[in-house]
Amino acid sequence: MINKISSLFFGSALLFFAGTASALVIYDESASGDLDSVGSTNVNLLAGENVIMGSINATPPADTDRIKFTQTAGLVVDSIILSFAGVWDDANIGQSMNTALFNNVANLFDDNFNSVTSGADITASFFDSFGPETGPLSTTTDGAIWDFQLSAGIVYPAQPWTLTINTTSVSQQVPEPSTFALLGLGLAGLTFVRRKKA
Questions:
Q1: In this structure, are residues 164 and 23 in contact, taking their beta carbons and an 8 Å threshold?
Q2: What residues does the Ice-binding protein C-terminal domain cover (predicted)?
């Protein structure tokens, strides 16, 4: 009986920790090849933390990185964050970098992804309030193709960047810690009752 209980507890612990996986690099420009300005690179999102890494080269000439990522079936996009790793020169880079984020579900562009004014992180708002079409960007559409672009006119030195896309699977229901606590109390109660009867 104790072996069964310990096996059940161990299995439950594995399920819990499986839901807290680490980040997965789905594209690294330095290892997988230079990103072009037309967005010919397309990668699939996975459940969890997806990371795309790139770098805007020192200019001239002007450089543009563009990548598309597909939202596979059963995924919800929870957040998209652009961050920079290099030294940020507000006088040059802040005046000549632009970014865009949209998906093919509607002709909508994320409000927060536009002119870059500092090296601070940019988090997607998933809403477009400008232009002829406005509204929320869909984060739940299976097969949606997201399009991210970062372009610069004057950059020195090169500017490394990271795009982090956090997703969850609608079919993956990870129990909360309180669920495990209740399960543990129930098992302890059953063990106590069985011992009392014996």
A1: yes
A2: 173-195
Closest CA to 46 of 28, 26, 29: 26
**Topology of 20-167 in CATH?**
Jelly Rolls (2.60.120)
Contact at 8 Å (CB) between 166 and 158?
no
Average pLDDT over residues 2-24: 49
pTM given for the model: 0.74
DSSP string, 122-134: EE---EE-SSSS-
User: Distances from the Cα of 38 to the Cαs of 65, 95, 147, 165, in angstroms?
Assistant: 9, 23, 10, 21
**Extents of the domains making up the chain:** 20-167
Question: What is the spatial distance between Cα 161 and Cα 167, in angstroms, rounded to a whole number?
Answer: 20
